[in-house]
Amino acid sequence: MDPWTGHDIPQLPGAPAAPRLYDSARRQVQPSAPGDVATMYVCGITPYDATHLGHAATMITFDLINRLWRDNGRSVRYVQNVTDIDDPLLERAARDGEDWVVLGMRETALFREDMEALRIVPPEHYVGAVESIPAIAGHVRDLVASGAAYDIGDGTGDVYFSVAAAPSFGYESHLSRAEMIALSAERGGDPSRAGKRDPLDPLLWRGAREGEPAWDGGDLGLGRPGWHIECAAIALGLLGDTIDVQGGGNDLLYPHHECSAAHAEALTGAAPFARHYVHAGMIGLAGEKMSKSKGNLVFVSRLRADGVDPMAVRLGLLSGHYRADREWTDDVLKGGSEQLGRWRSAAAAPAGPSGEGLVAAVREALANDLDTPAVLAVVDAWADAALAGAGEDEHAPALMSRTVDALLGVRL
Ligand code: 5CA
Ligand code: ZN
Question: In which band, very low, low, confident or very high, does the pLDDT at 287 lie, cut at 50, 70 and 90?
């Protein structure tokens, strides 16, 4: 699949700050010190509805990591998937009497437009589940051959991963077994299905069913991939056995990321699969997680159509810390719009306080586990001073503009 179109990222003077990020597995902030090439896999959309502000917030979070690494002189290999075949897509298409392929293509195209408008640096590879089926099926066959997966034996052709083959299972999410069972039931799993060796065993391959699309899985027969193996296979194929960051929203910590990591580790023998497991908080509306299944959505495309500046949306989403579950309200948007106006005026001021000092302070706050509330406070203070006529650095307004463009993705 083609990703969206990117923009030039300005280079900044002075010394970069080394990123530290919270890792869900180690449950603490740790330096993210990739080699010359930093690798990141982020779980992308299931395209059955338009991009909402929750998706946007998560994509912006990983965009900040991308920008920080680049500022640190790393080249970044970034891969994102599109779950273009899965139950929710088929269910929505059936409900609306639409072809699931057409639905997926339309919503993916809209997502690309939204990402471009929000100035998200595009991934190097933007990959669909469907185009990855040969690789996924190969991995499932390998897991069966090694004894880490089994056919459930009831004639459906469904194949499950055996969590018994993952001795460290649970190291990423740190949940109790009861919590894992409850969450997998909520999030697409089937803990009570008869015939499984363990209720926690996740589906790897779903044998063909009447009326559902199916692909040739070789020895697996006709069917379609499970969800977690999709992300493991795409990441392993394009980024190698160990990656720097595996990312997504915190709704994916269990079972999705725990299981993806367990699949990858069982396939390669390399553990941990990711050096950092990074999870963004949920954006909610009126106290509820924004989700397609709940229907309480604020769409990025709707805001754009209403004439809202995408940079104000971006600033609104950056006003909270990425790890915090937080609310989207009209006030958040209003705050972002006002801030954008103030920053634009300040960038046009004849002078301001030290530009170098500003770059250093922004870098330091961002490198500190993406502390965007602190970053915005630093830029606000600089802007207020510049607008009040304080400071004599004539290069500072232009440098401020380049800094928020390069590190925050906010184009003034
Ligand atoms: N296709 C799978 C991942 S492989 C999926 O979860 N798709 S999704 O469309 O439901 O979500 C896309 C991305 O947005 C995921 O990283 C998910 O964790 C994140 N996300 C979904 N809802 C929210 C929300 N309300 N707030 C923040 N992030 C969200
Ligand atoms: Zn995923």
Answer: confident
User: Nearest ligand to the C-alpha of residue 253?
Assistant: 1
Mean pLDDT of the chain: 97
Q: Which atom of ligand 1 is nearest to the CA of 57?
A: 27
Measured from the Cβ of residue 302, the count of other Cβ atoms closer than 10 Å reads: 14
Contact at 8 Å (CB) between 74 and 112?
no
Question: How many A from CA of 381 to the centre of ligand 2?
Answer: 39
Ligand 2 center to 42 CA (angstroms): 7
Structure tokens at 63: 């965009």
Residue 8 CA, ligand 2 centroid: distance in Å? 28
Instruction: Give me ligand 1 centre to Cα 343, in Å.
Output: 31
pLDDT digits (tens, 9 = 90+) for 297-342: 899 999 999 999 999 999 999 999 999 999 999 999 999 999 999 9
The phi-psi region of residue 157 (left if phi > 0; otherwise alpha if psi is between -120 and 50; otherwise beta) is: left
Ligand in closest contact with the CA of 188:
1
Q: Please give all residues whose beta carbon lies within 6 A of any atom in ligand 1, as ranges.
A: 43-46, 54-55, 57-58, 81, 83, 231, 248-249, 251-252, 280, 282-283, 289-291
- 109-121 pLDDT, tens digit per residue, is 999 999 999 999 9
Q: Whose CA is nearest to atom 23 of ligand 1?
A: 54
Centroid of ligand 2 to alpha carbon of 316 (angstroms):
26
Give dist(CA 182, CA 180) in Å, integer. Answer: 5
Q: Nearest ligand to the C-alpha of residue 54?
A: 1
